[in-house]
Specification:
The complex is a heterotrimer of chains A (288), B (332) and C (260). Chain A is an all-alpha fold and 288 residues long. Chain A has helices spanning 19-41, 44-65, 85-115, 117-122, 128-151, 163-190, 198-210, 224-230, 233-241, 243-256, 263-286; strands spanning 72-73, 76-77. In chain A, 70% of the residues lie in helices and 1% in strands. In chain C, the strands form 3 sheets. Chain C has a 5-stranded mixed sheet. In chain C, strands 8-7-9-6-10 form a 5-stranded mixed sheet, with helices on both faces. In chain C, strands 5-11 form a two-stranded antiparallel sheet. The chains are: A mainly alpha (288), B alpha/beta (332), C alpha/beta (260).
Amino acid sequence: MTQDSPPIRRRPRPAPGGLRDMWDIACGVQTIWWREVKRSLTDRGQLIGGVSRPLLWVLILGVGLNPFFRGEVMGDVRFIVPYTYLQYIFPGVIVLNILYTSIQSAVSLIWDREFGFLREVLVSPLPRNFILLGKVLGGATTAVVHGLLVLAVARFANIQMGLADVGMAMALMFLLAFGMTSLGIVIANHVKGFEGFGVFSNALVLPLYFTSSSVFPLDPALTRAQTLVTYPRWLVALVEANPVTYAVDTMRGILIGFNQFPMALGWQITGAMAAGLFVFAMIEFRRL
Amino acid sequence: MSQTNTATDAAPLPAIAVEGLSQRYGRTLALDNISLTVPTGSLFALIGPNGAGKSTLIDILCTIRAPLSGRALVAGLDVSRDPRGVRRRIGVIFQNSTLDTRLSVFDNLQFHARVHAMDRAERHERIDYMLDLVQLTEWRRSPVRALSAGMKRRLEIARGLLHDPEILFMDEPTVGLDPQSRANIWQYLAELRQRTGLTIVVTTHYIDEVGGADQVCVIDRGKILVHGTPAALKAAHGTTLLRLQPEGEDGRAAILSAHPDAIDTPDGTMLVRFASLPEAEGALAALRGRIGLATLEPPSLESVFLNLTGRALREEAPAPGRGKAQAGRGRK
Amino acid sequence: MARALPTPLRAMLPLALSFAVVLGVNFLPSDTALEDINAAGRITVCAPRDMGLLATRDAARPGFEIELIEEVARRSGWRVAVTRNVAMGREFNPGNWRISRATCRILVGGMRDNAWSKSLLELGEPYLSSSWVWVAPPGAAWPPQETVFSPGVFALDRAPLGTYLRENGIKVAPVKTPDELVEALHAGQLANAITDSTTATFLAQNHDLTVSPLPEGPAPTDLSFGVWKGDTSLRLHIDYVIDQMRNDDFIEGLRDKYGM
């Protein structure tokens, strides 16, 4: 202990809501966001998942099922959907990575709050909502990077994309991730005593994924009446009630130009989810 | 410098003023109409067993939880009306380590500084100063997981004080540390108080550490039992204690028959209270042969607690996860 | 206070590795089509019997697309066998062509990008464009009051044309085949016609007519070859060869030959 305390005293408190205060808050949010991104993107466990999913779904399953969806099978020309199966599930696999990463971020946030680092941040002058914003932005950013891991396999899946397409896809990924991270926070907050992430994977992520027309289409070549006849009504209803369906649909529209519902619908629903679920998450987050 | 008489002290406001504070924990009242004041620049110790409400009180004062009723003014600001303002002026060190073990020492401090809106020059000066203060300068770039428990604690202190707060809250600061580290920590804090007039609020159940506090407050089951200076409390409520290690079941039976009000402690010793030292010595002589180790303890804060609550303060082990601040049953 | 450089880079290594792995996947072949053709050393092609300049019955000038694909095969070291299919020229629904992978691996002859083809085929990069054009004696005035209309040799989208004609107040006298079109023109009442550019070029070469695009008319349609859906490796290879042909002006030369 050699020096005296440096003569820096606390500078006067900036007026709450003023420009300087906003700047301070923005810097705080950015600090939290960056830490989240760094931690997640160097997390080997997450990366293994993020790489294995496109490999398994696109490389293995996609190629494996591709021949069954060819236009010509055993000398008989048939119409299926106007794309190869690989192309069809590709957007779904992107969404799968987004779902997993978002929920993982949310779960780690809840753990962080209960047992660790976040408590320290909660006694800082950063307003609660902005702490949450930083965390959710971080989770969404990580999810987009994981989505890009899937996009990187586009050539293999025979998908041609321009720069504009990639940009739109990333924007949609971000919106979806934002909403899903918020959803994860709301749910994880209520589920106490869970044994790690496995519960979420099985109870939330996979059901959302499989009922979102990622893996099988509600065949558009048929009219809706015929769709109901082909699939049981309850399945059609389930798929149409799942908001992720519309995100997948719009993603598919962006990437391979094939969508069953209007494109705008996907944006609207995903955007509304992002905003609405974040508000929910804010409410949950305040409950301490 | 301790200030015991708030009525005539020169500082305009107490650091903390609590009036009629209440809060629930599940269905019980964790805090029952608590009122207290903490003078500026003092070392204030909050003592009580787990479940007493210490953690809840600290949570409220740190603005982590809102009170059910009542008011708390911390550094002159109301915790309910201006929590952000309060947080600017306080530093908190939690019982469980809240460091990011994957980052380095410097990174942890920098994160804290940025989140507290310290600008670049400020950050660097303060970080250098605090690292020097807690003697971790050589460890600046090391990952936190390479530090020992004592060093981590010091780092947390450095972090908690980085933004130069007026009040420092420390929840069980020395749990899990060896005596040397514990002594060191109290030393840093004493120096800081001397230089900067820092107010420190400590909760602990290591009752032997708070003998140097300016004010001690004993809390049990949500109510304040007593508070005052250690000397005053000892004088009013302290008794001589005889701590006995019985020799087997016979020894224990013998002790109990001679002193039916002897109290068991979890570490296997038994405590007997006496009004005066000669009495205790006499009793000790009478029990010769039935006991192993015996310690004669002059009136201490531990005896204060024992007299007030009928329980030994070391009855329960420290609660493992202090993070169970939310409503939920089953807290130990 | 700069951190020592290696550490953040080292921390990013797992991420970089992850991207390397997924990008590496792109080099795996997703199907065996190209392999099969190379192994057999022979490619089978289906083409319509008659499709304007794209596929003709003339042995000396077999057609733009036929010659194109023959050149591709030559450059790839394959023998080529062209099967002419009558149904391809007449039916729009590929289901009625009665062909399969066994019959041919490439389809040419006016394959264009629409839902029908996409269900069935993968189309390569386009090498030709076709659009609705106006065929008329030199110096004829636009717009005419009435015109002969033939859908032409392949399925250009008629709906935008219909809208366009209505907007311009042009009445239409439809005929079915290009032969009927020639007859109608010679019969003399209407000296002009609207049809697809390939047929029009064909006509204009043999009669004293000029071909002009429809002013602000419907957008042109791209043509290319088709492979069966899923034979991506084959398609990518042929795209590559055609691109090379474009670069050394072979395609240009072929266009000149057919007067397109």
